[in-house]
Write a structure and sequence with these properties.
335 residues, Ribosomal Protein S5, domain 2, alpha+beta, single chain, Alpha-Beta Plaits, 9 helices
């Protein structure tokens, strides 16, 4: 029987990078989705299809794959490998997550079958595509009674791709709605019925040249122990209060953008876009790791009090959409 699971994408409203250094972060689940289905068969292997590509792995290879990736991560922690050297190809993360779901649920064997992945979450944009995929796979193939356990295991799997990141992506795609991460504790906050309200958009500027893991590593090298993280924390706290009390976010988004620019993760074209938005009376900032090289920086959060991003001078290939929150986290779909 076909089984289907869905998980939302996410935007970090405030706290990207700083959350890794002990400051709080706020994230919002958005109406971009990862949908994963599984149709069992009798073959001793698992295959999965995304778009036009099909990947296959026999059950006899799952254990060796999992132990190899775990050992590579230990070598990364010792400084012997970079984060980009752990996964040889993205398909390995899918098979790893499926085997972790089996292991953590105490299941002796996996059931053969076909996995299909459909997503409208931009990859490499800071919208939590890998966390959403892992959450779907763990829910499909495992048994997790507590959502906090699921969040922990999504983060465990995702470490292979993002290194020593925070739990913000995992928490947001699992819980849905507005999520705060502070001192390692995850809280789902009440979100007003109108959400963020009108005038909010996302703009995708292209997949960054540097991975999330590479950005986190560069910032860690340059700013560990810096007082700038206290400035990030103050902005995030003020934004939380504004969201709960219906206050104005424009000045806070602008200040967040300036802090992100100071740590070197805002490519020049995105800085120019933010300047255009501010000239229109609005505010803009990157949402996610940004980039420490190249001209593309993933996703930007944009607030325009009048009009849409069509009024801006967007680079060729950039695309945008209206921002709408998703209140439901990872969940089963009716077959």
């Amino acid at each position: 029987m076909l089984k289907q699971v869905c998980a939302p994408g996410k935007l970090i409203l405030s706290g990207e990078h700083s959350v890794v250094h002990g400051a709080p972060a706020l994230a919002l689940a958005v109406d971009r989705h990862m949908r994963v289905s599984f149709e069992p068969d009798r073959l001793p292997r698992l295959s999965w299809q995304a778009r036009e590509k099909t990947h296959v792995l026999g059950f006899d290879k799952f254990h060796s794959l999992r132990t190899r990736l775990d050992s590579y991560f230990e070598r990364y922690l010792r400084g012997e490998l970079s984060i980009g050297q752990i996964l040889k190809k993205p398909a390995e993360l899918v098979f790893y997550a499926v085997d972790m779901a089996r292991l953590l649920s105490g299941l002796e064997h996996l059931h053969g079958g076909r996995v299909r992945i459909d997503s409208d979450i931009p990859i490499g944009a800071g919208m939590g595509s890998s966390a959403a995929l892992i959450a779907c796979l763990l829910k499909l193939f495992g048994e997790f009674e507590q959502i906090d356990d699921l969040v922990q295991q999504v983060r465990h799997c995702e470490r292979l791709q993002h290194g020593q990141g925070s739990a913000i992506d995992a928490a947001t795609v699992c819980h849905g709605g507005l999520v705060r991460l502070r001192d390692g504790a995850v809280s789902r906050l009440p979100l007003a019925e109108q959400g963020l309200g009108e005038g909010w958009f996302w703009v995708f500027t292209g997949t960054p040249a540097s991975s999330t893991g590479a950005c986190v590593e560069r910032v860690r090298q340059n700013f560990t122990g810096s007082a700038i993280w206290n400035e990030f924390a103050a902005v995030t706290h003020a934004m939380e209060q504004a969201l709960l009390q219906g206050g104005d976010l424009i000045a806070l988004v602008r200040e967040n953008h300036r802090l992100l620019t100071r740590i070197g993760v805002v490519p020049a074209p995105l800085a120019r876009l933010a300047e255009q938005v501010e000239q229109q009376g609005g505010a803009a900032k990157i949402c996610g790791a940004g980039s420490v090289s190249g001209d593309q920086g993933g996703l930007m959060l944009v607030f325009l009090p009048a009009g849409t991003p069509e009024v801006l001078q967007l680079a060729p290939g950039w695309r945008w959409g209206k921002l709408k929150e998703e209140r439901q986290g990872v969940h089963w779909l009716e077959s």
